[in-house]
Amino acid sequence: MGLSPTMLKALTLARYRTPSPIQASLIPLALEGLDVIGQAKTGTGKTAAFGIPLIEMLEPRGRGPQAIILAPTRELTQQIVIEIQKLAQTRGDVSICGLYGGEPIERQIRSLSRGVDIVVGTPGRVLDHMERRTLYLGDIFHFVLDEADRMLDIGFRPDIERVFRKLPTPHQTMLLSATISAEVRKLAQRYMHKPEEVNLSRDEPSVDTIQQYYISVNHDRKLELLAYLLKRDQPRQCIVFTRTKRGADRLAERLRRTIPGVAAIHGDLAQSARDRVMSGFRARTIQILVATDVVGRGIDVEGISHVVNYDIPDDPENYVHRIGRTGRMGKDGIAYLFVGPDQGEPLTLIETLINKVIPAHKVDGFEVARAASSAPPARELFNTAVTRSSHLAIR
């Protein structure tokens, strides 16, 4: 790919052997200085796809950073910093700084004042530093939007546009996203210059390497079922998704009574506590992580073998993002979806979105008792609805 010997050495140390499709397609375009839109499924190596060319194109340090990477969450920001540091490990002159809330801003100001090459941050904290004039933008040439769809979903569009308007001209923009919505497309058309587009998602919202199952269970037996599955499957690492922060805390507390290595993470935790949990999860001292959707999407750890949807998501798209935490970089993964007797409709909506019937997984002793006068088995209705949806999609 025409990479420098220094970069090739770093890739060898990081055990990168063969570029993923998004890396092979996007890196050469980025190295030419072109604006690039990269669309690829979660867990396909997007961070290295923009991180490698950024490091390769760095010039001798000037007054301020040369690249800004925006990400939607603190956790994803921290993970990008770690990945970029790994890619730059054979260059002793590259400095990276993470800018995000929940940590003293004075510490970040000191880091910026010492001089950095690459800034990785959440939109709000980056704007905070811009307004304080502690972040100099005059030397910026590379601007990366990672998980652009997620940032727009949670309302960061005004912040992103404010950053865009302050960047010097010319500059290179790389936009990475799992999906290219109309809003993402509009942002690209307004602020990017003749972008080259790389689309490797094939419009498939689910991940092929993930074995997906739903399990019918009464609501009052979900905890018992979860504990049984964890002991039976012995996952390398597992994320259990709940709907609420309180529910995450309560579930983690109950699991810890019988299962070691359990922790909860959600938006109400102090940043220091979230850092400790994520450090433990990456180090595998924490094997079971109970998380909410807001935090869960920012978790990128390759060792995750299982995802359990303890609470069925309100938005079907959140199901796709949840299960995308496993099956990363081509590795196999298992995703379970707990479905109560009254939750046939949200299951159908998920299956319609992914254009696939999720097979049932029966666990002896956890069968759902149905009243004799109940309606016909809901599964037949699910199959009919999804089959009909599939035919419409094919047409």
Automatic annotation (TrEMBL):
Domain Helicase C-terminal: 209-374
Position of sequence motif Q motif: 1-24
Lineage: Bacteria, Pseudomonadati, Planctomycetota, Planctomycetia, Isosphaerales
Domain Helicase ATP-binding: start-end pairs: 27-198
E.C. code: 3.6.4.13
Gene that encodes the chain: cshA_2
InterPro entries associated with the record: DEAD/DEAH_box_helicase_dom, DEAD/DEAH_RhlB, DEAD_box_RNA_helicase, Helicase_ATP-bd, Helicase_C-like, P-loop_NTPase, RNA-helicase_DEAD-box_CS, RNA_helicase_DEAD_Q_motif
Keyword tags: ATP-binding, Helicase, Hydrolase, Nucleotide-binding
Family according to the record: Belongs to the DEAD box helicase family.
Top-rank taxon: Bacteria
Domain (DEAD-box RNA helicase Q) ranges: 1-24
Protein name: DEAD-box ATP-dependent RNA helicase CshA
Keyword Nucleotide-binding: yes
MF terms in GO: ATP binding; hydrolase activity; nucleic acid binding; RNA helicase activity
Keyword Nucleotide-binding: yes
PANTHER family (UniProt xref): ATP-DEPENDENT RNA HELICASE RHLE, ATP-DEPENDENT RNA HELICASE RHLE-RELATED
GO CC annotation: cytosol
